[in-house]
């Protein structure tokens, strides 16, 4: 389910997978929860032409990892309701303005109650505005991610996005898509100089990306720390530092969460009616009792309860 902005909407979800699918237009990520228990998330959205305006919140802490769409340039103000989150290992403070490069990596950690708004501008429209209004090569602005710190500018963008989301399409209709995009880009240019990003973060992102690739390629046989070190050419200490900084988890904890999510997807899949024990074994959980405990600890319900709840809601 992609974001449907044909009309203003507000949707509530009971799983990270639903939120993940709803945001597929702007990023290709896996969203996993970092806290135990059942989860509630909300997504609200509107549009101005091809510009997407949206916001979301979650009752539990989340980790998002993957890649942004190459079709959009996304800008998001950091307010009190989302300050303290981490993006690509960097803490975001109230008053920051986060500029996200099209096709860039996503490593995001958010706390319970995190609420954030964003606007995604089509890359072609953003390039046209930057070249026409600033006589700059758009590549220098769009193709790198950066953080501008200016509370006044961040608050102005937050108010603009909130006004559109509150007023729905009727409000958005009063502002043409080109005008809105130009206003947003003007705000990004009015802020302070971007914060310098530590060069070590880029290296650590590569380490985590390579490790995740190996983990996802063999969910049934989770790689050992030694294998992850070999695949990433990182020492054990650096491997753990990179995972902690970017995902807030150890490599083993992250691998287990990804495997539990894969198990839940298979359990809920309508075409896969195999017994839950076989699903667990297929993903390398050799002790059904421990699998049920780990599953319940993460999702707040037993595997069979997930299947029954999904069947009842179908």
User: What structural class do the secondary elements suggest?
Assistant: alpha+beta
pLDDT under 50 segments (min length 5)?
Answer: none
- Which percent bin holds the helix content? 40-55%
- Label the CATH architecture of the largest domain: Sandwich
Helix count equals 12
Order of helices and strands: EHEEEEEEEEEEHHEHHHHHHHHH
**CATH fold name of the largest domain, please?**
Jelly Rolls
Question: Quick one: how many beta strands?
Answer: 12
CATH class label of the largest domain: Mainly Beta
Number of domains: 2
Average pLDDT, all residues: 89
**Which overall shape is indicated by the principal axes computed on the Cα atoms?**
globular
Strand arrangement in the largest pleated sheet: 1-3-4-11-6-9-12
Euclidean distance between termini CA atoms:
15 Å
Q: Which strand-content bin applies to the residues?
A: 15-25%
Query: So, the CATH homologous superfamily of the largest domain?
Result: Jelly Rolls
Largest sheet: 7 strands, antiparallel
Radius of gyration: 20 Å
Q: Can you describe this structure?
A:
The mean pLDDT is 89. Helix 6 crosses helix 7 (225-232). The protein folds into 2 domains: 9-190, Jelly Rolls; 199-313, Arc Repressor Mutant, subunit A, CATH 1.10.10.60. The protein has a 7-stranded antiparallel beta sheet. The chain has a 5-stranded antiparallel beta sheet with strand order 2-5-10-7-8. The protein contains 12 helices and 12 strands. With 314 residues, it is α+β, with helices and mostly antiparallel strands. Helix content is 47%, strand content 22%. It has helices spanning 16-22, 123-134, 138-142, 151-173, 177-190, 199-217, 225-232, 236-247, 251-268, 276-282, 288-299, 303-313; strands at residues 9-13, 27-33, 41-48, 51-58, 62-68, 72-77, 86-87, 90-91, 96-100, 105-110, 115-122, 146-149. The longest helix has 23 residues, at 151-173.
């Amino acid at each position: 389910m992609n974001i449907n902005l044909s009309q203003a909407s507000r949707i509530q979800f009971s799983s990270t997978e639903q939120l993940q699918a709803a945001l597929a237009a702007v990023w290709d990520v896996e969203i996993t929860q970092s806290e135990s228990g059942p989860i509630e998330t909300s997504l609200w959205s509107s549009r101005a032409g091809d510009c997407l305006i949206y916001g979301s919140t979650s009752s539990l802490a989340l980790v998002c990892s993957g890649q942004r769409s190459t079709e959009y340039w996304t800008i998001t103000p950091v307010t009190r309701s989302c300050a303290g989150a981490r993006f690509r290992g960097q803490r975001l403070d109230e008053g920051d303005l986060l500029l996200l490069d099209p096709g860039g990596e996503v490593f995001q950690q958010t706390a319970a109650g995190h609420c954030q708004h964003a606007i995604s501008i089509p890359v072609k429209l953003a390039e046209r505005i930057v070249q026409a209004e600033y006589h700059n090569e758009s590549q220098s602005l769009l193709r790198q991610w950066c953080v501008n710190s200016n509370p006044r500018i961040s608050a102005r963008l937050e108010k603009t996005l909130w006004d559109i989301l509150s007023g729905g399409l009727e409000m958005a209709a009063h502002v043409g898509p080109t005008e809105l995009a130009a206003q947003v880009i003007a705000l990004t240019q009015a802020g302070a100089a971007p914060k310098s990003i530590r060069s070590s973060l880029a290296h650590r992102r590569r380490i985590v990306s390579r490790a995740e690739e190996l983990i996802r390629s063999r969910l049934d046989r989770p790689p050992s720390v030694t294998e992850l070190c070999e695949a990433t050419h990182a020492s054990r200490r650096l491997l753990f530092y990179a995972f902690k900084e970017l995902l807030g988890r150890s490599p083993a904890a992250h691998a287990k969460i990804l495997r539990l999510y894969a198990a839940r997807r298979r359990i809920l899949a309508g075409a896969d009616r195999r017994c839950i024990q076989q699903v667990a074994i297929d993903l390398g959980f050799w002790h059904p009792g421990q699998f049920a405990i780990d599953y319940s600890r993460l999702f707040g319900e037993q595997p069979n309860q997930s299947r029954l709840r999904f069947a009842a809601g179908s």
